[in-house]
Amino acid sequence: MNKQLKKPSKMSWKYVMGELLLIVFGILIALYINNLNESRKLKDFENKIVSEIEKSLTSDYDFHITSRITRAEQIIQSSETVLEFLDGKIKYNDSLEIHFWRISWIVIFEPKSIPFETLKSKGIELISNEDIRKSLLELYDYTYPRINYFTESFNNWSTNRVEPYCIKNFAINKGDRGKAYKPIDIDQIKNSIEYRNLVFEKMTKTNRLLGRMNRAKDNVGDLLMQLKKQKL
Predict the structure, then answer these.
(1) Mind listing the pLDDT tens digit for each residue in 89-107?
(2) What Rg value do the Cα atoms of the chain yield, rounded?
């Protein structure tokens, strides 16, 4: 009972402290390696998603937006030609029939957005470059939605106003480059204030749409340049 406990020697304290330091050091190394692996995974994901976004933007730039711009330009050119006919500046000829048809065209705008939506679901902050983050958000959350809204309005107006008039007043035939709209009564078409107003309004609306499409194409081109610079 009177036996006294032996006090730990200096040697045993040094041993314990050494063991504790080794454990702490091991934990810190493990955390460092884990963080390094997580950082590498995030960087790999960033590189992969940026590559996918770049591919979708290139497709939008080279094909989708460009083809929509071409379609809008054709509608405008045909509207101008039809207005010249209605104003008596050119005589009726069979080539006008394709221009009458183009007046009824709509424009479908469906850019590729799946890679960006995937990025948003993971967190836009995974893109390390702040300028690129801002450009992506501006394009996909502002520019593209505005064009979608405008094209839907444009198409609804054309479907509800232009198409019914054309169905009623034109014979729809097959032409060399698509459909051909042949007036049932040429004089009636030429003297129709309603039709002239429809053609003029279609041209005006299409000009507005074309402006938005061209700005979108410029924005996509600038963003592609940013993405390519990041790779260098």
Answers:
(1) 999 999 999 999 999 999 9
(2) 33
